[in-house]
Write a structure and sequence with these properties.
Strand order of the largest sheet: 5-11-10-6-12
GO molecular function: adenosylhomocysteine nucleosidase activity; methylthioadenosine nucleosidase activity
CATH topology of the largest domain: Rossmann fold
Pfam families: PNP_UDP_1
Distance between the termini: 32 Å
Largest sheet: 5 strands, mixed, barrel
Strand content: 15-25%
CATH superfamily of the largest domain: Nucleoside phosphorylase domain
Organism: Actinomadura harenae
Mean pLDDT: 82
CATH architecture of the largest domain: 3-Layer(aba) Sandwich
Structural class: alpha/beta
Number of domains: 2
InterPro entries: Nucleoside_phosphorylase_d, Nucleoside_phosphorylase_sf
Protein name: Purine phosphorylase
């Protein structure tokens, strides 16, 4: 399992649902300003996903992308959704991965016409290489699809504006062809998320779009034929594969925990520590648990929300390993949700948080490692009082 987070954003409910279906037991994460994210791990995967819905348009996409980046400190930001194809060789259901994002609406109006002043963001080299490697492998398409044409993955620029293009003869369509004729697809949010990522130390951002129409006046027909859910299902499948590979490829990533066998000289890589008050931690080995984060030579307490998110992850691992049953898992997750919501109130209701964690400790008391984790988080919360 990886403790790193990848933020995945969508604009439409159908896009959100397609990604959410790929998450195992997602937990609600409520931002203080009301934005709701769901956090969970990909089915059969190690990657932790924070999923959010931004609505239509580059402006709302930029604002909520910035909010998600500040909230989760992700290793990458992915935007997944549908788009209209601008070239005939791209089939409905195919996936377009942006190599560049054109914000094409910028310009200046002069006596001799409108002069374009576009902004362009380019995908990072590393993310682009990983995406191309996944596309070549074809394993992302899954099994059981032999009777249906497998979607192709196309790499190229995507144009992002503020209008839905559904014509090949309109002035808007002529403008796109005249100034952005290498763009493969057109959509309405990519420029916003690209700008937000650019302003955050060049955070890797990848825009993945499933082609649901041809931007040629037939959108109503393709929508009736349900190309939107089909196209976004393909985009979500590619996104899941990309997220897993981005996490695996993360520099200095953590290695899996090992446990010493009886009689061997191998020491477990997992070391659990609890730092309270003004305690200082000198040397750590392996993985660190219990709400402690190592930053350079300093040891600092993780926030209670981060500690609860980590605890939720360990609950899932215990459920998957058969250490707790499904009913216990659901009850424990409900207590974690209560604790998280109490922490997000103003002022924080630490008494309610502590009560929820005590109930949780009772639920998982038979699993010593989990009970220790809960006690550690409980101590962290008590230090806030």
């Amino acid at each position: 399992m990886s403790d790193s987070t990848i933020v995945v954003l969508t604009a439409l409910d159908v896009e959100y649902d397609a990604v959410r279906e790929k998450l195992r037991s997602p937990l609600l994460h409520r931002h203080p300003q009301g934005t709701r994210f769901e956090v969970g791990r990909l089915n059969d995967g190690r990657c932790r996903i924070a999923l959010g819905l931004v609505g239509k348009g580059n402006q709302s996409a930029a604002v909520l992308a910035e909010r998600a980046i500040a909230e989760f400190s992700p290793v990458a930001l992915l935007f997944v959704g549908v788009a209209g194809a601008l070239h005939s060789h791209i089939a409905l259901g195919d996936v377009v991965v942006a190599t560049h994002i054109y914000a094409f609406h910028g310009g200046t109006s002069e006596d001799d016409g409108f002069k374009s002043r576009p902004r362009v963001w380019e995908v990072s080299h590393g993310a682009d290489q990983i995406a191309r490697h996944i596309a070549r492998g074809r394993s992302w398409t899954g099994n059981g699809r032999a009777k249906r044409r497998l979607p192709e993955v196309h790499f190229g620029p995507i144009a992002a504006g503020e209008v839905v293009l559904n014509s090949t003869i309109s002035a808007h369509a002529d403008w796109i062809r005249g100034h952005y004729n290498d763009a493969l697809a057109i959509e309405m949010e990519g420029a916003g998320v690209a700008q937000a990522a650019h302003l955050n130390s060049s955070l890797p951002v990848v825009v993945i779009r499933g082609v649901s129409d041809r931007a040629d006046g037939t959108k109503e027909t393709t929508d009736r034929e349900r190309w939107q859910p089909r196209a976004v299902a393909n985009a979500a499948a590619f996104t899941a594969a990309l997220a897993e590979n981005l996490t695996t490829d993360e520099p200095n990533r953590q290695q899996p925990e090992t446990t010493a066998t009886p009689g061997s000289s191998q020491m477990s890589e997992a070391v659990r520590n609890i730092a309270k008050g003004n305690a200082r931690v000198g040397v750590q080995a392996g993985h660190v648990h219990g709400g402690v984060r190592i930053e350079g030579e300093k040891a600092t307490l993780a926030s209670p929300l981060e500690a609860i998110a980590d605890l939720a992850s360990r609950l899932e691992q215990a459920r998957d390993a058969g250490l707790i049953d499904e009913d216990t898992f659901r009850a424990a997750r409900a207590e974690l949700d209560d604790a998280r919501e109490a922490l997000q109130t103003t002022p924080q209701n630490t008494s309610a948080v502590a009560l929820a964690l005590k109930k949780l400790r009772g639920l998982v008391g038979d699993v010593a490692a989990l009970a220790t984790e809960v006690a550690s988080v409980l101590g962290l919360v008590r230090s806030l009082s």
